[in-house]
UniProtKB/TrEMBL annotation:
The keyword Repeat does not apply. The keyword Nucleotide-binding applies. It comes from Actinomycetospora straminea. Residues 1-28 are annotated as: Disordered. Keywords: ATP-binding, Nucleotide-binding. This is FtsK domain-containing protein. Residues 163-360 form the FtsK domain.
Length: 417
């Protein structure tokens, strides 16, 4: 790695000895130019060597049996641009895809071999791609969320930005429930502030839900059309159960009255997409389970009522235009209403969590990403869903809590009088 760093060519104009006028000056400039061109060739050949060795190590190669034994074929490197950032074109081997260079841990490993932090793959044409070796973590810099609102649930809200610089969007009408986990201070609330602030004005979206912290929902939504459908705090846990049961009743009513020849509700202002936000579900369930149990025949315990309602919203809500956004520090099955409930989330986001929590929500393949992610900065998350492999993103940051309240108050849809 350091080898490549030392070989990186220096342009003559950057070179102090290249200046000067007159005959000797011109001679010096010519020699500097020749040395520069030679150093590019040396550097390019070193890059090719390192890349070939790294591809062999990572098995991004073909093993070909020839008379003399086994030989290794690695993707051919074309033009090398010293950069920064260092980039080079590569011809894919038969059967290879551009994504093979970044699949599993290949991206960072290839980049580390070439003295960088990350790798971006840009398809060029035919079998050729350009590999860009990023010198620093592309997600290290945060990005702000402008004061944006969508005019309808079918419009995409900004979820985050990938290492390749792609901004990912998601329409709340897409049939996916969202799971968000992360330790204290990892940025999950800030992410939800950004998400909800983008949805508050849409006439065909209703933000309902339960929040024992009273920060995400509740006061911030005072005087908006959403507030009557939200329950906050821990003083009346029964009210959380009642709200969720009311939402289930509305879901059942919608499913019962589905128009003929239609298998799902098309959201309108009269039947909006209901985003059921469930903040800190494990805490809600723990508190509800701590209540005195009703006597036999005297009703169902509050915790069980909440679990049943959540499970029904998760399993049957999609067709009735209900979407669940559930937040928890970790998505342990027992803490979020069971493994079946957890399986219902098509879109999953993990802010900083221990490796086992990452694997719990994103599957065992994500375990190898766990060690590094266990120390992730606030706002950096792994995302699975949207038809993409589990990938690292940075979510936008709207600012402090006061800014969230201001945006909801400014743009939040008002109830018709
Ligand atoms: N996307 C981001 N970009 C930059 N900084 C962020 C981002 N998200 C959060 N932060 C910083 O991290 C701090 C903690 O974030 P946040 O309150 O959202 O964490 P949390 O996971 O919800 O924690 P808790 O469970 O304690 O509520 C924020 O006050 C902010 O300073």
């Amino acid at each position: 790695m350091s080898e490549l760093h030392h070989l990186r060519p220096v342009r003559p104009s950057d070179h102090r000895t290249a200046g000067g006028t007159g005959f000797l000056g011109r001679q010096r400039a010519r020699r500097a130019q020749r040395e520069y061109e030679a150093s590019i060739l040396t550097f390019a050949s070193a890059v090719k060597g390192e890349f070939r060795a790294a591809c062999e190590g990572l098995h991004i190669c073909h093993y070909v049996s020839v008379a003399a034994g086994l030989t290794v074929r690695t993707p051919r490197v074309g033009e090398v641009r010293p950069g920064p950032p260092l980039s080079f074109t590569v011809e894919l081997l038969p059967g290879q895809e551009p994504g093979d260079f970044t699949a599993k841990e290949n991206g960072p490993r290839l980049a580390h071999s070439l003295g960088g932090h990350g790798l971006r793959v840009e398809p060029i044409a035919g079998r050729w791609v350009r590999l860009v070796v990023l010198a620093h973590d592309p997600l290290a810099d945060g990005f702000g969320l402008p004061s944006l609102t969508v005019a309808a649930g079918a419009e995409s809200v900004v979820l985050g930005r990938t290492e390749g610089g792609i901004t990912l969007g998601h329409a709340i009408t897409d049939p996916a429930h969202l799971a968000v986990q992360g330790q204290n201070g990892s940025g999950k609330s800030a992410f939800c502030y950004g998400l909800l602030s983008q949805l508050v004005a849409a006439p065909d979206v209703l933000i309902a839900g339960s929040d024992i912290t009273g920060l995400l929902l509740g006061r911030a939504f005072d005087d908006t059309a959403h507030r009557p459908h939200q329950v906050v705090g821990t003083s009346d846990l029964g009210a959380h159960a009642v709200l969720l049961e009311d939402l289930v009743a509305e879901m059942d009513r919608r499913l019962e009255h589905l128009p003929p020849r239609q298998d799902k509700i098309e959201p309108t202002t009269a039947t909006p997409t209901v985003l059921v936000v469930l903040e800190e579900v494990p805490g809600l369930l723990r508190a509800a389970d701590g209540l005195p149990k009703p006597k036999r025949g005297d009703g169902i315990p509050v915790g069980d009522r909440i679990r049943t309602a959540i499970l029904r919203l998760l399993s049957e809500g999609r067709k009735a235009a209900f979407r669940v956004l559930m937040l928890a520090q970790r998505f342990e099955a027992t803490a979020v209403g069971g493994g079946y409930a957890r399986d219902q989330f098509a879109l999953r986001l993990s802010f900083r969590v221990p490796a086992d929590s990452l694997a719990m929500l994103h599957g065992d393949d994500a375990r190898r990403l766990g060690q590094e992610h266990a120390n992730a900065d606030p706002g950096i998350a792994y995302l699975s869903g949207l038809g993409r492999d589990c990938e690292r993103i940075r979510v936008p940051y709207l600012g402090d809590y006061g800014e969230y309240v201001d945006r909801v108050q400014r743009s939040g849809r008002r109830a018709p009088r």
